[in-house]
Amino acid sequence: TGWRLGGAPKPVEFIIGNLDPAGGGVANAATTLEIDTMELPIHEKVHILPFQDTFAYNYDNMYQNHIVPFLQTKQIGLFSEGFDFAYDGVRFRVVGVVPEGKQGVAGADTQVFYEGPPIQRVVLTQLHVLPYESSLPEQYKKSKLAVEDVALLRDHVQPHFDNHSSDIVRGQEVTIRDVRFKVISVEPKDGGGCGKDTVLICKGMPLRDTAVAAKAKPKAKAGGRMTA
């Protein structure tokens, strides 16, 4: 997914949004092709800056070996200012787009600006998250007291935080592929963003929604005996 395709003599660009199987493969006569009728808005200009903690060599290197490959092969959905992404271990943020404030994609004619002060941030050494039971698919429920932490890290948590660099604090909630997670703890305690050395933890009991827990709370019996 995310591949940007073009044609000639007049380019008509497409972005591949979904594949089955998700890992990709070769299209043949038996492949079903679905084309969405919605035209994607294309940014005239985008300004992308790297995060200081993953800065790689120089700006030209990051543009040629990280930004361009991402825009050509990994775009999924629309983006605007504040969009975080990563490619081959280097993290970036979109800090400006034209038209200003609009959602769109980068096309063949989009001007990409990639120089400016690298973005500074505090990098977490550890992040502990747990999912809410009500949003958790059955295959990730080891028991009533534990989740399948290795599978959740592999399928949800690790891919998400590999590409999202914004600050995270204790108590924050995040939805990843329709599963709701809550941040249980972070180190340092004031929060920060995830990096390549951040230890991700997803062990523990699945969380219950406050409303569900309150509804399930047993009522006190009336007429009980009082003791002195």
Describe the protein.
This protein has a four-stranded mixed beta sheet with strand order 4-5-3-6. A four-stranded mixed beta sheet has the order 10-11-7-12, with helices on one face. The protein is built from three helices and twelve strands. The longest helix is centred in the first third of the chain and has 15 residues, at 59-73. The protein has helices at residues 59-73, 149-163, 210-216; strands at 4-5, 14-15, 45-50, 84-87, 90-98, 111-113, 126-131, 141-143, 146-147, 173-176, 179-187, 199-201.
Question: What secondary-structure arrangement, pairings included, does this model have?
Answer:
Elements: E1 4-5, E2 14-15, E3 45-50, H1 59-73, E4 84-87, E5 90-98, E6 111-113, E7 126-131, E8 141-143, E9 146-147, H2 149-163, E10 173-176, E11 179-187, E12 199-201, H3 210-216
Parallel strand pairs: 3-6, 7-12
Antiparallel strand pairs: 1-2, 3-5, 4-5, 7-11, 8-9, 10-11
State the secondary-structure class. Answer: alpha+beta
SSE order, one letter for each helix or strand:
EEEHEEEEEEHEEEH
Question: Could you tell me the number of beta strands?
Answer: 12
Provide mean pLDDT, rounded: 88
